[in-house]
Design the sequence.
């Protein structure tokens, strides 16, 4: 008899957790027969613990999202208190104190004059609503997005995405035009902001400025390689958008809330978008919540026009409570400043690895947002794994790290280093020590 749904169940074994999860649930981004999920039962600080009791250093903050670290009692207490007091209300016709307080707090920390916020359940939904808002406000239908970008996996957000994750979901929503930024490609070492801006402007001209509602951009590209724009690029995007009446949407879902050493990545270049989307670090992923920040000019459109959007769980009180508590942790513990300081330490670790290992072809970071490119040949830049694929060497690298108790995220030939912002120098060194050993595996495959 299958007792999966019975009451008063005993704790499952690690094997049962994996078996039942694979049998009864569908995992994302993977062929189910190839899965070997790691059963996790607890987490604290920069570590999480497997069902077998093994401790793992979380070197990627899970999905680049547990920014304050796991299990902070201040957030746990705020969530429990909110659930006990008021778990849910209809957000369309009712409001709550935590919603009001969070809206005001975000107005304080958002860039420039962004003041009004629409709350969602996550980052993809935030980007969907940003597009909906831009189209409504401008009366235009086209959305520019970049290749080598990721904006989420819902129907609209996956169309905005410029990497191969969208392929299986095509055809997508109409009106999305992708732009190739040359500094993001194989020639990024020699090309400049001016080259990328010229390509963007030509695309605008060819598409017709009067048809384009918005340009959505990750200020620092995330899973496609932690690609930091050259100085002048975001400023130039802002100027082009202003010139043509196009709204600038900054997707800060991954780069926001201290990940780059500032509250938001656009702050490094003093650029204020018309719309800003965020999630992940907003609640440090303790509970789901996303947000869309709007400039006064954009928000004012809805003074006399109904906003045709919203879902059951928007502005969820528990999510708002978690966000308020999370922001307090950033402020009380100085985590934004800490990310900038520890980012310098991490950059030195990157440089040392590049000096010792011929398979490290490039490294990039800003704050605690980092990436190593693993290559077969430094001179040619041949990646250790093909585009949109993996390789035995990269798989071996991942296995070695996990066996040694360090969790990293690999994306093709890229290895991400995105630890929680609360990580210490000693803990950071612990992770890079294991990575130093692991890279000997990929060094063996280097040619030339």
Sequence:
């Amino acid at each position: 008899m299958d007792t999966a749904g019975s009451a008063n169940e005993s704790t499952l074994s690690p094997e049962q957790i994996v078996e039942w999860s694979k049998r009864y649930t569908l995992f994302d981004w993977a062929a189910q027969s190839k899965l070997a999920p790691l059963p996790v039962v607890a987490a604290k600080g920069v570590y999480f613990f497997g069902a077998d009791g093994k401790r793992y250093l979380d070197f990627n903050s899970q999905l680049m999202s547990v920014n304050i670290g796991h299990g902070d009692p201040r957030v746990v207490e705020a969530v429990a208190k909110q659930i006990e007091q008021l778990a849910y209300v209809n957000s369309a016709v009712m409001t709550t104190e935590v919603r009001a307080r969070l809206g005001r707090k975000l107005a304080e920390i958002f860039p420039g004059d962004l003041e009004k916020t629409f709350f969602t359940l996550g980052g993809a939904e935030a980007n969907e609503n940003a597009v909906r808002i831009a189209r409504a406000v401008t009366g235009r239908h086209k959305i520019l997005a970049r290749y080598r970008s990721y904006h989420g996996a819902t129907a609209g957000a996956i169309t905005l995405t410029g990497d191969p994750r969208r392929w299986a979901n095509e055809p997508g929503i109409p009106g999305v035009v992708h732009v190739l930024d040359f500094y993001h490609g194989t020639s990024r070492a020699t090309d400049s902001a001016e080259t990328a801006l010229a390509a963007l402007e030509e695309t605008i001209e060819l598409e017709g400025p009067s048809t384009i509602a918005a340009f959505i951009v990750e200020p620092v590209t995330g899973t496609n390689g932690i690609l930091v724009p050259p100085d002048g690029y975001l400023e130039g995007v802002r100027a082009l958008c202003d010139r043509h009446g196009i709204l600038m949407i900054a997707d800060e879902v991954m780069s926001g809330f201290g990940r780059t050493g500032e509250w938001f990545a656009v702050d490094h270049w003093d650029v204020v978008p018309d719309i800003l989307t965020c999630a992940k670090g907003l609640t440090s992923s303790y509970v789901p919540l996303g947000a869309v920040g709007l400039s006064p000019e954009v928000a004012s459109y809805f003074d006399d026009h109904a906003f045709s959007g919203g879902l059951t769980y928007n502005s969820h009180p528990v999510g708002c409570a978690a966000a308020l508590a999370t922001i307090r942790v950033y402020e009380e513990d100085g985590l934004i400043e800490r990310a900038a300081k520890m980012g310098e330490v991490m950059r030195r670790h990157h440089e040392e690895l590049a000096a010792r290992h011929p398979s490290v072809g490039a490294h990039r970071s800003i704050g605690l947002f980092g990436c190593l490119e693993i290559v077969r040949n430094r001179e040619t830049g041949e990646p250790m794994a093909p585009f949109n694929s993996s390789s035995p060497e990269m798989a071996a690298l991942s296995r070695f790290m996990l066996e040694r108790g360090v969790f990293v995220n690999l994306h093709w030939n890229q290895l991400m280093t995105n630890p929680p912002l609360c990580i210490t120098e000693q803990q950071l060194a612990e992770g890079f020590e294991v990575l130093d050993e692991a890279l000997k595996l990929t060094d063996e495959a280097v040619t030339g």
About this structure: The two ends are 60 Å apart (CA to CA). The domain at 14-68+334-443 is CATH 3.90.1150.10 (Aspartate Aminotransferase, domain 1).
